TrEMBL record:
HotDog ACOT-type domain segment(s): 17-129
Region (Disordered): 132-167
Keywords: Hydrolase
GO biological processes: acyl-CoA metabolic process; fatty acid catabolic process
Source lineage: Bacteria, Bacillati, Bacillota, Hydrogenispora
UniProt xrefs under Pfam families: 4HBT
GO MF term list: long-chain fatty acyl-CoA hydrolase activity
Protein's name in the database: Acyl-CoA hydrolase
UniProt similarity note: Belongs to the acyl coenzyme A hydrolase family.
Gene Ontology CC annotations of this record: cytosol
Amino acid sequence: MSEPANPQSQTPAKPPAASAVEMTELVLPNDANLLGNLLGGRMMHWMDIAGGMAAIRHANRNVATIVVDCLDFRHPVHVGEIVTLKAKLTWVGRTSMEVVIHAYAENPMSGTVILTNTAYFTFVALDDAGKPTPVPGLTPETDAERQEWQAAAERRRKRLSNSCRTP
Ligand SMILES: CC(C)(COP(=O)(O)OP(=O)(O)OC[C@H]1O[C@@H](n2cnc3c(N)ncnc32)[C@H](O)[C@@H]1OP(=O)(O)O)[C@@H](O)C(=O)NCCC(=O)NCCS
């Protein structure tokens, strides 16, 4: 397991809670496909925004999305439902950060809430010239966050060895 602190950043390490984001959206007709369900692309856009905000908060820098893992669509989301996206950092490297994003759909008439999507987005912090720049360390505080860190480190190892990126 890597050290949570990043000695190359000038900013002290922060816990995941310091940058966590919760974002809420109402699904409107313009967000839907021909079946009346939320477009997958719109959900991915919202996840990217929520995850990006968490990464910007952590890094205090602009960030770029570099890779997305394990994005799943477990249940359709319908027009009129309320989507809540929760984003939290799981791991940081030197310039990159992994953020887990969970999306929940709420039927506001019944009050039913279900987990509809999960994904891991990796962002890279950028300096003023648009080059990767060091980010603060991450200090997991709970057992779940420590487990997430270890799982994220393993995901990164697999991701880098199986990258789809062409030379
Ligand atoms: C983000 C960008 C500047 C990074 O440039 P780069 O030359 O790949 O940078 P590096 O090789 O130094 O890698 C930067 C970090 O990304 C990580 N990385 C690179 N490829 C990766 C991959 N496939 N999976 C996970 N991490 C990856 C590196 O390990 C490094 O992390 P670390 O510093 O924590 O160890 C460049 O890839 C880019 O501009 N991509 C386009 C981004 C974009 O347009 N996104 C959509 C809109 S936001």
